[in-house]
Amino acid sequence: MVAQKRALEESSTPHKSKKTKGADGQPSNSPLATTSLTTEEVDFPRGGGTSFTPLEVKNIRAEGIKEANEELFEDSQTQAKTAKQKKRKSEAKKTSGDAVADKNDQIRIEHLNYKRINIGMKILGQIVSIQPLALIVSLPNQLFAHVPLTNISTQLTELLEREEESMAEVSDEEEHDELISKSRVPELHDIFHEGQYIRGVVTAVHAHGSTDVSVIAKSRDEVAKSSRRVELSLLPERVNAGTITAAVKSIEDHGYALDLGLPDVSGFLSFKDAEKGHFKVKKLYVGQPLDATVNKMSSNGRICNVVADPSTFSSSFLSEVTNASSVLPGALVQSLITAVNPNGLNLQILGFFEGTVDHLHLRRDAPEKAFKIGKKVKTRVLYDFSSSPPRFALALTEHIIALTPKRADNVTLLEAFPIGRILDAVKVTRLESERGVTVEVQPGLEGFVHISQVSDDHVPSLSSSGPWKVGSLHRARITGHFSFDGLLQLSFKPSVIEQKFLQVADVEVGEVVKGTIKKLTETGLFVSLSGNIDGVVWPNHYADIALKHPSKRFKVGASIKCRVLVVDKDRKRISLTAKKALLDSTLPRVSRFEDAKVGTITHAVVFKVYEKHLLVEFFNNLKAMVPIKEASETPLHSLVDTFPVGRVVRVRITALEPEQSRIIASVRQASSSFKATADISAVEIGNIVQATVSEIHKDNVVLTLQPTQVRGLISLKNLANHRTLSVAQLCASLKAGDVLEDLVVVTRNPEKGFVIVASKPKAREALPSKSVLSMDTITIGQLVGGRVTRHTRNGTLIKLNAHVGGILHPTDISDDYEVGVPFPPIDSLVKATVIDIDQSRKQVALSTRQSKMHPDQPHNVVDRDINDINELHPGDTVRGFIKSVAEHGLFVTVGRDLDARVQIRELFDEYVKEWKERFTTNQLVKGRILSVDAATKKIEMTFRTGSLKNPAQLSAGDLQIGQKVEGIVKRIENYGLFIQIENSKLTGLCHKSELSDNKDADVDVALRGFREGDRVKAVIRKIEKSKISLSLKPSNFDEKDFEGDDAQMADASGDEETFGVIDEDAVEEAESSGPDIEDDEDQDQDQDQDDAMDVDIDPSAQVFQPIGSKKSDPSPALPTPSLKLTGGFQWSSTMPQAEEPESGSSSDESDAEASTSKKKRRKRKEIEHDLTADMHTKMPESNADFERILLGSPNSSFLWVQYMSFQLQLSEIDKAREIARRAIRTISFREEQERLNVWIALLNLENVYGTDESLEATFKEAAKANDSKTIHLRLASILDQSDKPEKADEQYKRTCKKFGQSSKVWTLFGEYHLRRGDLEEARKLLPRSLQSLDKRKHLKTISKFAQLEYKQGEPERGKTLFEGIVDSHPKRWDLWSVYVDMEAGQGDIQSIRNLFDRVLALKMTSHKAKSFFKKWLELERKIGDEEGAQTVKQKAIEWTQRANAT
User: Fold this and answer.
1) DSSP code, position 751
2) Which phi and psi angles does 717 have, rounded to 5°?
3) Which H or E element spans position 260?
4) For 377-399, what is each residue's pLDDT tens digit?
């Protein structure tokens, strides 16, 4: 019997619920009053049974199932004929066969949507917003509905109708106000609260976008907009059918009479039980709906006592029912799990009815094995499917079971996650391809992203392997709340995330915003701010003055700049102002009563004018009163004439009345001429304050105390003494805006409104406070303070007190001589430590070194303390101060009683004639110790660089023929070079015939390339009687001989320490003011030598490059360089000039050499002076110069273009054209690049100096003579660079039309648009280019456009393009690398990590994987962190292990 009953119950499950729904779209029109409460047969059958016998129940069900199957599948056209035949044959076994089949088939779990909602459906919802005339209700599965005011209860509707009739009869305004005050119609805020659960019945379903017929048509909120599609009713007679939702019918003596919506049955709620309901009001209103639980039924069955306790209502559940109409939404029922699906659960309710729970309404914190088949759970009914047999949607989530709002972090969802908040990383947990994705925001809280909100581009469906796959992380923004489902409404759209205002509450009062004029009406100007956020500018805020014709100023679609005046979050309205005075105002803005402070000066707008006072308005509807006596400095007879409504005035807040929230202001006191006495009552004598420097005067500083804004004065001497500086030093370092701390108020002047402050005295922890300082009590290491009295040669004298004095040596000033001052200013206060005591002189030696004053703390000692001569050793580098400048050199103080001598020869590496002007007393210098004589206490120091020990001197016997040596050119003669061999005093001769391997070369040219002092490398050819012959021929050397020379020289120069004066400015000043190093005779000699060496140049001569000279220096023998135009065309470029090495002269030549030089100088004067040798080292200056050079290099476009430029400077336009034509004819046809350069120069010339016709003619001729595409693109670039956008755009279009098969043409056109900011035009080119290009070039073009978006457009769009590429071509590793490089340019390391994770998940060779891991590691080290680098290494190891395993 039990088995038969179970099979019978299972057979009630429909086979194909989807077809069942489609067969009958409208709910059955059964009477609403049909209920088991009013049945006449049996009121309360024992055990929840019926009056039928079990056999009768079984037969009735079998007949019902048979009729249902016949009705449902009668018109089916999809069933095969063979299936029908089999069905007829097995009709005898139908009972057992159907039972087994139905047991295997499960009901489909469906989401509720607007299409599945039908009129008459009963549904459970949660109130999310209460508006004046409607309720906004959150429904299951992210849907919304509204309840009009007339659908609350019949009693409330009757009250509204009676009030309307009474209002129509009343005409007087006072009587009207009195009637409203006495009206007993409650507001919806009084009888409902947000988060309250209600059950309702669907009364209307409007199509999307249809005309709204509800009472909330003016709502601009997105939730309210979506709620207009479904209309609910809370009327008990429509909602109830077997359980209780009541409405207060009347108020009796002991309680409330309730309307239960059932015929012949009424309810009663006592006052005592009503108090348990925790209602907003003490007394319930007539017409107020409430949820009640039946407590007791009267004997006659017509009256039932109910209780309104929410806890009782939420915890009471149905255990048995007689029919499906008794199961209402919101009921808590016992259910049995019959199947577990990926989308939810299938359950059986009360043993009779089928139910489903979708994944949204499962407990999110429940373990995976929490729901097992056969387990009983308590569920709450959400709605019925209006199907036959009955089927219900259920919920298992905690907040719905408890009928409480969903909470996060112990607060509501709206408080914990306000709309507009950006979530950096949410994880996708579920993907529905046609609907959207579910993400995890935090443990226990999820969000939903609709498919329309995942991207700015249209996404037809979501792929499980796409960018929104399960487990991926995304950046999202909260756009709303699905309160009933306990979900956050999110959006992945970059445009939404970057949107400035998402809702009205995001707009701040006083903020300057930019918008677009949407509409201009007589009542106001409507401005679109951001997305769906609009604002309105009222007519009195159009401008500072009233506008007679606002339509002339405001055009629809134009941009406008406004300031936010009022933000009404409840009504979702924003008021703006376009008044220039308010827009440009820099005064503080007052938008709340708390912002108003006495003394604040701000701008306000005249709101209303009375006879005795003005009413002005601040921001956010905050108003202030201005008495007539404070309206102007002069008496006014009429405020209306002086202060028209809408005028912007400057006011000062003079008084506040918090009890009445009233502000008193003054226009008179806000004028610049008004001088108000500041209130200094907040500052008392002795207060420790902080201040900001406002003004700096001769003797004092004007301060502004913080935060009281009281003016203060402090003496400059007091501040200087506190900082141990002179007044001049303090004035140089102090500036307005500096913050001074620890100031003490010493004097107050209330009459003038300022205070006098002084620096807070420093704590004297180490100074003896009680004992008197004397020579007997003072100790070494003691901290003392004193005043500087005078300066001596040995140091600074400091007076500690009347009996004790001290001396501060310059080397004891600081641990770093560059920071300290060797001689502190006189009269300054100094704090120092005692390092030595001289009882005979009653003097102590002091030190202000921090390492001495605080030896227990770590310090960076740059200049060590030298007290004994034995602490110095030859080779030590030390710094000191110049003590005196003598005739034979300098004396430098390097320590106490330790002076070092620097002789003249040790001052400089080179000869300096007037050396004294470079040094001054007390100047900081750096040198190296040469010798130390402890017996005589003599120390020798040098400022010269280089090693202290002379290297071993070479002799003639050490040299061999063929040996390669280095040397310095000492002298240049007509027959050769005299070279001094390095590390020796030997000098060899290199004859001019040994300079070049080319016998035909003009060696005089090569000889002229050398200067005295040049370093060279030579080979010894012959040694005869101390005469050494050298050779500089390049054939004697190979590349190895010159490797490392430059590096060694650079290292040598880098390792050498710079000695001498530390102050570089002083050195530069001395060099600029001092005389030249060389004397007049030497200068004349050099000039004569230059004159004598000017000879003709043979272009074919080879010149040897001396060691150490720059490799980039062009030689006269080198061919003329060709023109390179990769960096852009410039007419003003110059020819490369050879850099002549500076000629040096020795100051210590022997007398014999000097006399020989004089004899030869007279001989050189006889040589003819020829200037033609300078042609290769200077710019041609005439046509003849150019013609002569072009004879040697006729194919050099560089020279031809320079020749054209030379003519243009002379305004010879036609001549320049002729030269260009001549160049094209002259340059060899094989030199295509050189000819192209000249054509481009000619196009530039025509663009600047020619006409459109001449430019077009030249362009066509150039296109025929050269590569046509190159010329087209070059002309477009020329027009773009010359700021001719219209012509450049036209040229690019012409190029694209002619060369549409070239990807480069489209890419350059797109780059041109992006560079000019035309983003939309650039993006339109991509689809157009793909239509013209071959398919093999599509990927390349898309990749180029994506890179351009990253560099000059929107990186997000570039990312979208790359995502499309790698999604369709995942094996293109080169495109993956480019994608990663573009993302690396954005600096988003998380995005880069995601890309590498995706690409390394693909199958690839180990070589390619290695390159990707290497690139990843480099990026982690560059823009990531060490933890990320370690992660990359670990992932590389794991990848290798997996690859080896497979």
Assistant:
1) T
2) -65, -40
3) strand 255-262
4) 888 888 888 777 788 888 988 88
Separation of alpha carbons 509 and 501, rounded Å: 13
List all residues 6 or more positions away from 319 whose beta carbon is below 8 Å from its beta carbon: 48, 334, 350
Distances (CA, A) of 1083 to 1039, 1087, 1144, 1445: 38, 6, 11, 82
Give the span between the Cα atoms of 555 and 546, in whole angstroms. 17
For the full predicted model, state whether its pTM sits above 0.90: no
Residue pLDDT, tens place only, 933-987? 888 889 999 988 765 555 456 777 778 888 888 888 888 888 898 998 887 878 8
Contact indicator for 1353, 1361 with CB cutoff of 8 Å? no
Output phi, psi for 972, to 5 deg.
Answer: -120, 125
Three-state secondary structure call for residue 377: strand
Nearest-10 Cα torsion for 1293, 1295, 1298, 1301: -100
pLDDT (mean) for 227-231: 77
CA of residue 406 relative to chain centroid, distance: 34
Nearest to 19 by CA among 132, 108, 138, 85: 108
Cα 554 to Cα 517: distance, rounded to the nearest angstrom: 7
* Rounded distance between C-alpha atoms, residue 1302 and residue 1332, angstroms: 9
- 1218: three-class secondary structure by DSSP: helix
Distance of CA 745 to the CA centre of its chain: 44
| Spatial contact of 788 and 827, defined as CB atoms under 8 Å apart | yes
Give the confidence band of 535 by pLDDT, cuts at 50, 70, 90. Answer: very high
Which DSSP helix (H) or strand (E) runs through 1378?
helix 1373-1386
CA–CA gap between residue 1407 and residue 118 (Å, rounded): 62
DSSP state, residue 984: B
Q: What is the 3-state secondary structure (H, E, C) of 1241-1306?
A: HHHHHHHHHCCHHHHHHHHHHHHHHCCHHHHHHHHHHHHHHCCCHHHHHHHHHHHHHHCCCCHHHH
Nearest CA-CA partner of 498 in 1364, 1361, 1355, 1348: 1355
Residue type, 326: S
Tokens of 1065: 């400015």
715, HSE (Cβ side, Cα atoms, 13 Å): 10
Q: What share of the chain is helix, strand, coil (3-state, %, to 5)?
A: 35, 25, 40
List, in sequence order, every residue forming a beta bridge with 617; answer none if it has no partner: 605, 623
Q: Which token pair is 1256?
A: 């077009």
694-707 tens-digit pLDDT: 888 888 899 998 88
* SS3 assignment, position 497: helix
Map residue 65 onto helix, strand or coil.
Answer: helix
Give Cβ neighbours of residue 1438 (< 8 Å, ≥ 6 apart).
none
Average pLDDT, the chain: 77
CA distance 1071 to 1069: 5
Q: Is 29 exposed, middle or buried (0-12, 13-18, 19+ CB in 10 A)?
A: exposed
Tokens of 54: 């079990």
DSSP lists the bridge partners of residue 530 as 533
Residue 1105 buriedness (CB in 10 A; 0-12 / 13-18 / 19+): middle
Alpha-carbon distance of 130 to 187, in angstroms, equals 10
Burial of 428 from C-beta contacts in 10 A (0-12 / 13-18 / 19+): buried
C-alpha dist (Å) from residue 1269 to 866, 1263, 1264, 1294, 1304: 78, 8, 10, 11, 10
| pLDDT recorded at residue 605 | 92
The rounded distance, in Å, linking the Cα atoms of 1198 and 1227 is 12
Task: Work out the number of other CB atoms within 10 angstroms of the CB of residue 821.
Answer: 15
Q: How confident is the model at residue 445 (pLDDT cuts 50, 70, 90)?
A: confident
